[in-house]
Amino acid sequence: MKFGYTIIYVESVEETLAFYQRAFGFALKFLHDSKAYGELATGETTLAFASHTMGDMNLGGEYTKADINEKPFGVELAFVTDDVPAAFDKAVEAGAISIKEPEPKPWGQVVAYVRAADGSIVELCSPVGG
Q: b/e for 73-108, b at 16 or more Cβ within 10 A?
């Protein structure tokens, strides 16, 4: 078994991809001609986005759509960086909502949290022990 990718269902795949490019610096890996599915180059595991239309098709409409105006799901995306404060500032400048500013953790990481434009929780963290 290998973890292949994470797909987040969103209102606009194009707008979400553009936000993640601006806020976190990821490059576009793939965008289907239909604009209903796209991927970012994030390292070994792919981060993908699909339209709610595709989510309805795949899951028969049986899921809760993320909404930036509602409480977030109990799931987060974690992006590792050597400069958490700079990554946090860049994300907020790009439109992410600050949840928790960078702070050192007892185990050696610096960690911050933002809410992405699609409503997802994003953890920005330094490498463990770094």
A: eeeebebebeebeebbebbeebebeeeeebeeeeee
